[in-house]
Amino acid sequence: MVNIKDIPAEVRWEIAARSATAMTGAYGVFFERALGDKYGEIVKHIWIEGGKEAKGLAEKLALPVGDAREVDEAWGVLSQVLYGQEITWETVEEGKDRAVDRITGCPFLNRHREMGADARGIFDACQAYAKSTVESLNPKYTQRFESAMCLGAPYCESVVERRSG
Predict the structure, then answer these.
(1) Could you tell me the residue ranges of all domains in the chain?
(2) pTM given for the model
(3) CATH homologous superfamily for 8-162?
């Protein structure tokens, strides 16, 4: 008999992350048909709520989130914990008030492509989730994408910066 402890933690993590990222494509295909135009707005709000969990996770992992660099790094760590090591990026600018990353690997995009689903539909939910995550980690900061692979760009350019005002 196989026990869960017989499966290496890295393998369990990879399976869980792959399953989590596949779920969006799977429910998207079916719910979009059922909900029509309402689908995008509903999904966006679900992902905003999901992003709000980042603060609690960061606290449990004792991740610092005092400035843009730390918020960006915490977001990256949480992304890999939740969605696996398929998510890859390089930081091209970092400072106390602003951090810019180029995301070059996205498990959500990969799952959508594997399922033959239209990846353009994931951008609004991803942007909502990313912004909600960053603002949950530290409300003094916000996030936006300057480009997105699911919209045809070679990479997603993410900007985390201090809110104005």
Answers:
(1) 8-162
(2) 0.91
(3) Trafficking protein particle complex subunit 3 (3.30.1380.20)
